[in-house]
Amino acid sequence: MREPAFWHRPPSWTSSSLAPLGALYGLVAANRLQRQGFDAGIPVLCVGNYHLGGAGKTPMVLALAKLLRELGETPVVLSRGYGGRLRGPVKVDPERHAADDVGDEPLMLAATVPVAVARDRVEGVALARSQGATVILMDDGFQNPAISKDASLIVIDGDRGLGNGRVFPAGPLRAPLLPQLERTDALIVIGNGTAAAPVAAAVAAREKPVLSAHLVADEAQVASLRGKRALAFAGIGDPERFFRTLRGCGIELAAERPFADHHPFSQAEIESLIADAGRDGLTLVTTEKDLARLRRAGEGLPVWAREIVPFKVTLEFDDAARLRKFVSERLFRAREKKFRT
Question: What is the pLDDT of residue 341?
Answer without folding.
Answer: 62
